[in-house]
Every structure is written in structure tokens, then in C-alpha cells.
């Protein structure tokens, strides 16, 4: 598979371990050295999410995503489509309990 972005940013897309679930919500996003701000999230899985950015991020940029009362999750920008649609891959699972529950 090739890049999902049409702007040349993003490497080959690897198969997802889990399907992304559509979601319409706001999450807190923080970029390195900046304050957090609210952004829209469009889909989510235990490994990542697709976000709307206010300013175009760099490919592989590290960001922190905070969902409600959960602690912030470190993520890396995987691809950028247009100026604001961004996919992020989380350093650790967004929902660590989901793996434990599925093994039961």
C-alpha cells in the first residue's frame, strides 16, 4: 500500500492490528513545547487515532493526546492528508485494558 495522503507525507501504510472505530469527539492535543488545545478526533483504535490539527504537523512529530479523564498518551504522526487530517500511532496502547479483557 502507498501513502494515504496525496501531499507526499507519509510512508507505506502497514496493515492495522485493530480496526479503527469512527468517533466524533474532542480531545486535548499537545505538541512539544506548546500548551494543549482541543481538536476533533475522527476515529480511534488501541494503537492510534485520526485527528484534526490546527497547524500542519511534521511527519514523525511526537504529540500527546488526552482522552477525557485518561492520562495523556504519547503518539507519533504517521501521515498527514491536506492541511489538517493527521493519523497518529500511539507509543503505548490507548486502551491497555482492552487487550487484557480480550484474553479472558
UniProtKB/TrEMBL annotation:
Pfam families noted in UniProt: PilZ
Disordered: annotated segments: 1-20
UniProt feature, compositional bias: Gly residues: 1-11
InterPro entries per UniProt: PilZ_domain
Source taxon at top rank: Bacteria
Name assigned to this protein: PilZ domain-containing protein
Signal peptide: none
Domain PilZ per the UniProt entry, residue ranges: 16-83
